Amino acid sequence: MDDNDLIAALYGTVSEDTRWTEVLDALKSRLGVASAVFQRLVADRDDLIPVISLRDTWSTQEATRHDAWANSPLNPRFRRDTEPRGQDEIESDHRCLAFSATDRENLKQGLAACGLGAGFWLGCRTAPGEHTTMIFHRYPGDGRDMTDADLHFMNLLLPHFRQMSRLLTDVAGIKARLSVAEAFMDSTSLALVACDMDLGVHWMNAAAESLVNGLPQVAQLNGRLRFRSNDGMSMVRGVIHGQRGDTCRVEGDQPSEVLHLRVLRRDAADKRRWGRNLALIALCSPGTAPRIDATEVAHLFGLTMAEATLTTHLVGGMTVKEFAAHRGIAEGTARMQLKSALTKAGVGRQADLVRQVCQSLARL
């Protein structure tokens, strides 16, 4: 693998983190060293903590041995005063001005115990108190500093390492925000689906999956929404494309099985943009009761669990009599629980209790 291929492979790790071992093996071979490791370091008081360590094949096999000293606070490199002072750096055990003579002797002995020789590295600051580094260790007993050839390659690699580190940081941030958004959308009882113009499903939350699986006129097949009738399919496609407004209804076998669909957001078609044009749609069916957690209702309204359980079943459409039979309790007991729940919620009628619970949870 020549240098250009190596640099291209380095960028490939941004989207395929499984390629790190292969890339680090190639870098190790290119420099003729024993070990190549990529790390993300975060400052913690006076120390630097390696929160991510990606290693070449041999270093992976020796990870326990290396972590006992080389990747621990015993190593002078993990002091806060050794982090990059500028945006990026090329350094070595020999050149680092933060090391005293005692530090260098400790490094020599500690690395030898780990089966490693002298180290050199490049680093890039990604945020205050955070940076990435790629460190290379020579073979045991080899205490040489970087050669001119090593330094030339490190200078060639540094701007690409800097850009790759920024990309990794940006992608990690996007993934974190996406994870939070998906967690929120999974927690809501509103059924949400993100699909493309061909009804290919790119994401759906748990409520939508339950609804699609429970209705006869719609299904998800091979990653796409499919409707039983051609009219239903044509109607939904028209709404997704913005040709028939933003809402439609697809009939089921029973009146309660009708599916209501609303487009919440539709990306404008633009062939100059990367990716697929997606629509975010909301689904609901009158026969599907909202999912409500009795524990949450109890906490929000100060109810006992018995009162909260009754309330959630009333929201789901049961009568007090049906609930009593369902739970195996006297109807009078259930009505006493309802009376107490009404008082605690500050309402006078069962319908008002149901409405207040639904509105409060919807706002949350």
From TrEMBL:
Coiled coil: none annotated. Residues 300-357 form the HTH luxR-type domain. Residues 69-89 are annotated as: Disordered. The keyword Oxidoreductase does not apply. It comes from the Bacteria. InterPro entries: Sig_transdc_resp-reg_C-effctor, Tscrpt_reg_LuxR_C, WH-like_DNA-bd_sf. The keyword Hydrolase does not apply. GO terms for biological process: regulation of DNA-templated transcription. Residues 78-89 have a biased composition (Basic and acidic residues). Keywords: DNA-binding. One of its GO terms (molecular function) is DNA binding. This is DNA-binding CsgD family transcriptional regulator. It comes from Novosphingobium taihuense.
